[in-house]
Structure formats: structure tokens, C-alpha cells
Amino acid sequence: MARLVLSDASPLIALSRVNGLAWLPSLFGAVTMPPEVYREVLPGLDLPGEDAITQALSAGWLHIAGPGPGTPALPELDEGESACIRIALAHDGPTLLLMDERAGRAIAQERGLRVADTAAIIGLAKQRGLIPSARELFALLHAAEFRIAPEVIRTVLQRVGE
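That's the DNA-binding protein sequence above. Prediction below.
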């Protein structure tokens, strides 16, 4: 298991909308988000999922990282993705990034970082018996206007035997 699990906004938002945040401590232990991600997931606009994220912070397994290093500059990425990658690169030890955006995942992987997206998290939750059906979760995400590529969904469903 990674010693540091950093999450970008998208997985937290997606999982909060389908009651999936509760799986994260079972799957990964503590999860950390940079301050840039905190501002994105809790903008104070009473958006869907904000309560679940606030509860995860209160429960103590979701944490906010201190300010990360300013380098390397990653101007092609948004602030949250950039912060996650910079913190992971500066961390001495195994790190896992939870990140959905293709460009961010590609840059992280080019730099030798491990990455899991929301679809992979759902697949892992199914494999560990935390949810009865990955297919149902993908349908709920789709209904919540969260899009995952059909080929990614097919791959995960095949991997978990659905």
C-alpha cells in the first residue's frame, strides 16, 4: 500500500455523489488533498457531495496537505493536478495519485508516479467486496453527469466479472 495517497478533485467529487467516499479508508487508509483541491471540492456553494467531503474531513481519514513545493512548473495542468504531482514527487516513499484527467495521469506516469482513476477505484471496491455491483455505480455516476469513457467502463467490468 502506498504510504501517501493524494487525491485530485475529480475522484473526490465523483465518489461523494455516489456515497463512495466511505470506501477510501478501507482501500487506502488516509487520503490527502492539496489545499488547491480543497478549494475546488469545497467552494462553499452547497454543491452535491460537499457534505460528504466535509464529513470525511471531520472523520479524520481525509486530510489537507500543507503547501507543496512550487516546482516543477506544470502549466499544462490545473492547480489541483499540479499540486498533487508536485507533492508526490517531493515525497520520500511510495505514493498513489487519485486522478481522472488524462493529461494529469499521463504526466504523473511519465514521472514514475502510480495513478488510479475513479473507474479503477470502483473496480477495486468491487473486488474487495465493498460494493455489490460496479455496473450500478457507473450508472449512478452517469446519471449524476459524471462521464467515464465506455471502453474504460468495459475494461473495469470485465476485470471484476460483471
